[in-house]
Predict the 3D structure of the following.
Amino acid sequence: MPITVTAPRGVLTDLGEREILPQLTAALIEVSGATGNPFFTSIVGGTVHLLDPADVYAGGGNRPVVMVELKLPNIGLPDPDSRAAFIRAATDIVDRLAIAGHDRADTWVNILNAPEGAWGIGGVAYTGDALIAAVGAAM
């Protein structure tokens, strides 16, 4: 379940640049109710993209927006409450790891769902049922 963080260079602290992915991973695992599940943990990963501040825009103007994008299968975070919980947790994480003065309104979180069978690892296209079985087998 890829997590992509895109931020203007200098908005995240040095620690924040190193810790944002581990903390977002932990938040997703917790919100998903999969804490301690080795299979679920192994399929959460991501990247951090740090851009020149002049290359980040919102509302048509240059603005220091930090964007967190989560891509997961349709079965992941299946209801509005779980999605809202991840969005809150991700925003709180950015707040903790950003420089002083970063505006919470400049943290955007998007959750994108892959349709049935359009999410895979290692050449295996997982259906929702296959993912549930793999997570269950790892418990």
In short: The mean pLDDT is 92. DSSP finds four helices and eight strands in the chain.
